[in-house]
Amino acid sequence: MTVQKTIKFRLTVWYLVVIAVLLIGFGGVAYVLLSKNLYRNLDASLRARSEEIQKSIKFEGGTFLFDQKVDELVLIYNADRELKQRLGPNVEFETIGETVKQALFGNASFVSAETVEGPYVRLYAAPFNVDTATRIAIVVGRVPNEILSMLAIFRMVILNSAVLLLFLAGVGGWFMAGRTLKPVERIADIARGIGEGDLSRRIDVETDDELGRLASTLNGMIGRLEEAFVKQQRFVADASHELRTPLAVMQAETSLALEKPRSQEEYRGALELVSQEVGYMSEIVGKLLVLARTDSGNELLNVQEVDVAGLLTELSQDVEALAQEKGLHLSFGPMDGLTVSGDRVRLRQLFLNILDNAVRYSPAGGTISGSVVRKDALAVVTIGDTGIGIAEEQLPFIFDRFYRVDRVRTDGEGGTGLGLSIAASIAKMHGGAIEVESQVGEGTTFRILLPLAGPPRKPPTTILPNP
Ligand code: ADP
Question: Which of 20, 128, 205, 442 could lock onto 215 through a cystine, CB 3.0 to 4.6 A?
Answer without folding.
Answer: 205
